[in-house]
Design brief:
Helix content: 25-40%
Radius of gyration: 15 Å
Number of domains: 1
Structural class: alpha+beta
CATH class: Alpha Beta
Oligomer: single chain
Shape: globular
CATH topology: 60s Ribosomal Protein L30, Chain: A
Number of strands: 7
Strand order of the largest sheet: 1-2-7-5-6
Low-confidence stretches: none
Mean pLDDT: 96
CATH architecture: 2-Layer Sandwich
Length: 155
């Protein structure tokens, strides 16, 4: 089953890729790899949540934000590569969690992104990952995620 079919089965669709808010592109390609810029948990053009995880945002809410970030990252990667079904393997996920003092559950938050990628790509969604706690993120977002994916070889 293709990634786009799996996405439909999950009741999801790729959102539009927003225009960059600075001097960068949403995704770039080099050789067989696509690298995305950090993606925030936008849904319907607005941030899903704001604030620090472990304070204004619960770990479960942040996990849902990480899932949205991953969906937005897939949209950027798909746009750069000519479609979701051109993506072959998720290579690496890096996630940043705006953390209240004492919060150290960043890996659990990033499971939201990792689980979505596994649901969409199956075994090809298994990846290396970094989960980093930070004091601030753009727009007071609780989570930011970037991904690296490989492309199907040309036919």
């Amino acid at each position: 089953m293709t990634p786009s079919n799996r996405l439909k089965e999950l009741g999801l669709e790729l959102p539009p890729v927003p225009a960059p808010a600075g001097s960068y592109v949403p995704a770039t390609r080099t050789g067989p790899l696509v690298f995305t810029a950090g993606q925030l948990p936008f849904s319907g053009g607005e941030l899903h949540r704001t604030g620090k995880v472990g304070d204004a945002v619960t770990p479960d809410e942040a996990k849902e934000c990480a899932r949205l970030c991953a969906l937005n990252a897939l949209a950027a990667a798909a746009e750069r590569s000519g479609g979701l079904d051109n993506l072959r393997d998720v290579v690496k996920v890096t996630g940043f969690v705006a953390s209240a003092p004492g919060f150290n559950g960043q890996p659990g938050v990033l499971n939201g992104a990792s689980e979505l990628l596994g649901e969409v790509f199956g075994e090809a969604g298994l990846h290396a990952r970094s989960a980093v706690g930070v004091t601030e993120l753009p727009l007071d977002a609780p989570v930011e995620v970037e991904i690296i994916v490989s492309l199907d070889p040309p036919t």
